[in-house]
Specification:
With 562 residues, the protein is mainly α. The chain folds into 2 domains: 14-420, no CATH class; 429-561, 2-Layer Sandwich (Transcription Regulator spoIIAA). The chain is 60% helix and 6% strand. The chain contains 24 helices and 8 strands. Helix 2 packs across helix 16 (358-372), helix 4 (65-73) packs antiparallel against helix 13 and helix 7 (138-155) packs antiparallel against helix 19 (404-424). The radius of gyration is 29 Å and the shape is elongated. The N and C termini lie far apart (65 Å).
Length: 562
């Protein structure tokens, strides 16, 4: 039995890791947090349907089966999963030209995209790609989400003004609004401004006040009492009851899947980066463990639940996670309570939604977009790392003026370039004894010697094909410009965790050049695994006596040599 269990250990599905153990004294707080999340998030997810181009009821569906599945199969005790503006925007952009927005075909394709995103998440889990979340840098993520926020907010201006709207892309939508400015519906504008005022005022008083819910309920009551439908567009009949469970009704084909792959992959990248970043932040806050790979399982199952229950892709939400945390929730138990409340709403409270003015949703979504624009984050990047600020700004502009899918691809590329740039030009150093005798780092440009005729050169990154030339150039310059002339050259490899084929060839070439100059090349503090991996190639070049375990051994050997 032990053998069988070990063979299938990998395929074991985690269960209730984000819920157990349950502290009985914490249950009241979890219930309150669940109610708070429902009150704050129900108007929000209905707003996301406007971004996604799906019926309002699908927003509630994202908080039912998907939320429940994630709660019981994830590892994070804090991450909240639901509809999200970034993935909703990617969805809408990806289905342009494939199906008419809001049609049955469109909704079915949204379900297919959720299933495809789940497929990518399971693939990432299967081959252990949870670490990929680290390749979407915080800088690029701030730029991307800010761009999404600007695009979302500008897209809702027409709804708040009671205009028909139209156009594809941010500039086109703005132009359509400008051309239709004479047709502003002042009733819709008054309702939208009232909603904004209520939400903003309530947040200034306390973030625990469900301002959006108060505004939505108030607008519904007034619309029912005063018959707002005579003056502005309202939602109309909203179906009640549970979602239909089944595969999306589309004409399945490889051609269709190929069309949807770029959109599904863009969603996958955002889900991976945003969910992992949020889980990591809250796990660190409460000194708890979480597994990015197990969360991939939960996210994958949540999106399968979304695809099979007639709604759109779900994602880890920083804002909803903060809502639960602020309300006192400390486990996924609060999400289970939220899902139960949503179930009651679906069964008994959808009829009043028919009276909701569309301007109300536009106002809610407008604020969601504004909140995504992280001006403080952009300013902080500009202040601390000006070069990274321009990376974030390029990503932002790409999302706003070109498109979300192109923006996410650029975000990935810029993150990888930024990562490569750091390794491409590492800030290496020379080590020189200080007054106390302890070795201290000095810039390579100082050409300082640890002892007369001995240079200790610390390379501060893995040595690979992109930075091997820098290694060669810096060593050559140190050798040629040394005063007094060098007898030994020590490469401190304590920070080198890999040496690729190109770098090995470069080291052998450097060794040969130094030999011709009668300079001995030695290597100190090379990690054991790196030494073993490159044992044959390096030992053949340098000889078995070229390695030293510590820099003190190098200094003693050099003094003894003299």
């Amino acid at each position: 039995m032990t053998t069988i269990k070990s063979k299938f250990e990998f395929f074991r599905i985690p269960f209730l890791q984000g819920v157990l153990p349950i502290n009985s004294s914490q249950i009241p707080a979890e219930i309150i947090a669940g109610i708070t999340l429902a009150a704050l998030a129900i108007p929000e997810v209905m707003g996301y349907t406007k971004i996604a181009g799906t019926p309002v009821i699908t927003g509630l569906y994202t908080m039912l089966i998907p939320m429940f599945l994630f709660a019981i199969f994830c590892s994070s005790r804090h991450l909240v999963v639901g509809a999200d503006s970034a993935t909703a925007t990617i969805l809408a952009a990806g289905l342009v030209g494939i199906a008419a927005t809001g049609s049955d075909e469109y909704l079915a394709l949204a379900g297919v995209l959720a299933l495809m995103a789940a497929g990518f998440l399971f693939l990432a889990r299967f081959i252990g790609l949870g670490f990929m979340a680290d390749f979407m840098s915080r800088t690029v993520l701030i730029g991307f989400l800010s761009g999404v926020g600007i695009q979302v907010a500008l897209g809702e201006v027409s709804g708040m003004l009671g205009l028909k709207g139209g156009g594809h892309g941010t500039l086109s939508k703005i132009w359509e609004d400008v051309q239709s400015i004479g047709q502003v519906n002042f009733y819709a504008l008054a309702v939208a401004l009232s909603v904004l005022l209520i939400i903003v005022t309530s947040r200034k008083i306390s973030h625990r006040i469900p301002g959006a819910l108060i505004a939505v309920v108030g607008a519904i009551i007034l619309s029912w009492a005063l018959d707002f439908s005579k003056h502005m567009h309202v939602l109309g009949a909203v179906p009640s009851g549970l979602p239909h469970i089944g595969l999306p009704e589309v004409k399945w084909s490889w051609e269709l899947l190929q069309k949807l792959v770029p959109t599904a992959f863009a969603m996958f990248v955002v889900i991976l980066a945003q969910s992992a970043a949020t889980s990591r932040a809250y796990a660190a806050r409460y000194n708890e463990r979480f597994s990015a790979n197990i969360d991939l399982t939960g996210l994958g199952l949540a999106n399968i639940g979304a695809g099979l229950s007639g709604t759109f892709v779900v994602n880890g939400s920083p804002t909803k996670t903060q809502m639960v945390d602020s309300a006192g929730g400390r486990s996924q138990l609060s999400l289970i309570f939220t899902a139960l409340i949503v179930l009651l709403v679906l069964l008994f409270l959808t009829a009043p939604l028919a009276f909701m003015p569309e301007a109300v949703l536009s106002a809610v979504v407008f604020l969601i977009g504004i909140e995504l624009v992280d001006l403080k984050g952009m300013h902080s990047i500009l202040k601390q790392r000006p070069s990274e600020f321009w990376v974030a700004m390029i990503t932002l502009l790409m999302v706003v003026f070109v498109g979300v899918e192109d923006g996410i691809i650029l975000a990935i590329v810029l993150s990888l370039i930024d990562h490569t740039r750091r390794g491409y030009q590492p800030k290496n150093a020379l080590l020189v004894p200080g007054k106390s005798g302890i070795l201290r780092a000095r810039p390579v440009a100082d050409k300082a010697q640890a002892l007369p005729g001995l240079v200790i050169y610390r390379f501060t990154h893995s040595i690979y094909y992109a930075n091997a030339q820098q290694l060669s150039e810096e060593i050559t310059a140190l050798v040629n410009d040394s005063k007094p002339p060098l007898h030994w050259f020590c490469l401190d490899a304590s920070a080198v965790d890999d040496i690729d084929y190109t770098a090995t060839k470069t080291l052998r070439s450097i060794h040969q050049i130094l030999q011709e100059k009668d300079i001995r090349l030695v290597i100190a503090q090379i990690p054991q695994d790196v030494r073993q991996e490159n044992h044959h190639a390096l030992r053949k070049a340098f000889g078995k006596h070229a390695y030293f375990n510590t820099l003190e051994e190098v200094l003693d050997a050099y003094r003894h040599k003299k």
